Amino acid sequence: MKNLLRDAIRQWPSRQYGKKKYLWRAGDKFSGLWLIKFGAVKTFYLNVNGDEQITGFYLPGEYIGLDELPDGCHRGYAQVIDDCGIYHLSWTELSEIMDTGNERRHVYRMMSEYLRLNKARFRQLTRLSAGEKLAGFIYDLAVRYGFQGIVMRDFRLPMLRRDIANYIGVTPETVTREIIKLVDAGAFLFSGRQITGLRPTIMTQRAGDMLSCRNDEPLSTTTRGARYGQ
Questions:
Q1: Do residues 144 and 215 lie in contact, with contact meaning Cβ atoms separated by under 8 Å?
Q2: What is the SS3 assignment for 57?
Q3: Burial category of 69 from C-beta neighbours within 10 Å (exposed 0-12, middle 13-18, buried 19 and up)
Q4: Per-residue pLDDT, 210
Q5: How far is 68 from 19, CA to CA, in rounded Å?
Q6: Is 150 helix (H, G, I), strand (E, B) or coil?
Q7: Percent of the chain at pLDDT above 70?
Q8: Is 97 helix (H, G, I), strand (E, B) or coil?
Q9: Residue 54 contacts by C-beta under 8 Å, 6 or more apart in sequence?
Q10: pLDDT of 171 over the 70 cut
Q11: CA angle 50, 126, 181 (to 5 degrees)
C-alpha cells in the first residue's frame, strides 16, 4: 500500500514548467501534491519588507507541498529554478487516496518527518559557521542527487549563489569565499555552477553537525539516495 500514492501521482503525464514559473503563490487555494520528475523548485515566503526568505529546494524524485497540506490556501510561493517536469496530484485525487487508512498514515508520516527535519535544519543553520553551513548544504545535494546510496560526485547546482546565501543565512560574497576554501581543501572542483570530483570524506569533515539535518527518505518516493531521475 505504501506505493499507492507514488503510483497514483505517476499515472498522469508530467507537465513541463520553465524557469521562474510558479507552481503556486501565497493565497492560492491549496493545489495538492507535486512530484518532481526532473529540474528543481524553490519555496519561499515574503517578509514584511517584501524580500524573499527561501525555505527549501526540491530535486528530482521529491514531493513538494507536504508542509501546506493542513491549510486551505498556500502560505508561501513555489517557483521553478531549473526547467522542470512535474507530476501533480490534485487535492481531490489526494483526498480519495487518503481515504485508505494506510495511505493516510503514510502521508501524515511524511508531513511529520518533513516538519521535524526542517525544524532541525533551521536550528542548525542558526548556530553553525558559514563554512559548515555551505559544506553541509552542498553535501546534502550530493546525497539527494545520488542513486542507491551512492553520493553523486559530479553535478550542477540548480540554484543561484544568492539563493544559497538566502537559504543558509549568509551573504553571496561569503558563499563565493567558502566555495573557494572548499576547492582549496580539495573537496571538489568548481566551474560556473558545476561541481566535479566531490570527495565525501572532506565534505563530511567540513560540514560537521550540519549533516544531522539532511533531507532524508520521507521526502522522496523511495529510500534516500534513489531520488535522481525518478
A1: yes
A2: strand
A3: middle
A4: 61
A5: 22
A6: strand
A7: 74
A8: helix
A9: 42, 43, 44, 163, 166, 167
A10: yes
A11: 100
pLDDT given at position 226: 30
Task: Give me the mean pLDDT over the 43-54 stretch.
Answer: 93
- Separation between Cα atoms, residue 185 and residue 52, nearest integer Å: 32
pTM of the model: 0.82
Query: Quick one: pLDDT band at residue 227, thresholds 50, 70, 90?
Result: very low
Output the pLDDT for position 65.
Answer: 85
Q: Which of 220, 85, 79, 211 is nearest to 145 (CA)?
A: 220
Q: Where are the beta strands (DSSP E) in the chain?
A: 15-17, 22-24, 33-46, 52-58, 63-64, 77-89, 155-156, 189-191, 194-196
82: DSSP letter: E
Instruction: Tell me what the mean pLDDT of segment 157-182 comes to.
Output: 96
Q: Answer whether 97's CB lies under 8 Å from 8's CB.
A: yes
The residue assigned the cell 492560492 is 28
- 19 - beta bridge partners? none
> Which cell goes with 2?
505504501
**Arithmetic mean of pLDDT over the chain:** 82
Exposed / middle / buried, residue 29 (Cβ in 10 Å: 0-12, 13-18, 19+): exposed
Work out whether strand 33-46 and strand 77-89 pair parallel, antiparallel, or are unpaired: antiparallel
Residue 154 and residue 8: Cα distance in Å, rounded? 32
- Find residue 171's DSSP bridge partners: none
Grid cell at residue 85: 517536469
